[in-house]
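Per reviewer request, we include the raw input and output of the structure prediction for the construct analysed in the revised manuscript.
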Amino acid sequence: MTTTTLVLGAGGATGKKVVDYLVAKKQSKVIFGVRSPDKHKDLIAKLGVDASRQDVSSVDTLDFTNIDKVVFCCSAATYAGAHSVDYMGVVNCIDAAKKAGCVKHFVLISSRLVDPVNRWHPVRMILNTIKWNLMDNKFKGEQALLSSSIDYTIIRPGGLTDADAGAYIEACPAEGKLTATSICRSDVANVVVECLENEKAKGKIVELVSRERKDGEKGYEARLAEIF
């Protein structure tokens, strides 16, 4: 039976990658969820996907009817938007998922360093300042998902880059130790696609970075398959 996956924030840099890779896999019907579908009509037509107006900051616009899986790729675009998007946006989506009663897996793309134990880390402090309390609100969004009854996966990437996919992906549980600090959006998108197809991904928080592959290390596809 074909599943339906709604990608929220599909018009963003990471969301576009997730949609692109899901379409290439051809294992799920993909819904391009954005605040303003008309703004992305050319891309939507090119990808051949359905679009849906879904504004995570406005619960009245959210409709998850017949949605099996949700990928939350949204993040505040404005200085003061983190509370309404990164925190309440997740809460609103949880409510919409519960109302629909059909969502089997909710994947949240968060960030490394969101946990307040890292409050004095300079990178966290900078991100919390650039966008008012961004990291604090991302963490609250995580906590809302953790306390819900929905099967979840939380993905915490390091600093996002636009490099090509194919580096060696390092992964660890929440607050684990990793040697690198960044990861490209394409690698994150590939991990999202993998977790949507892997039952072992449910109920996990995974932190991700990527680095140059060393001699003898597994190839890209093999590494993806063992992340969870």
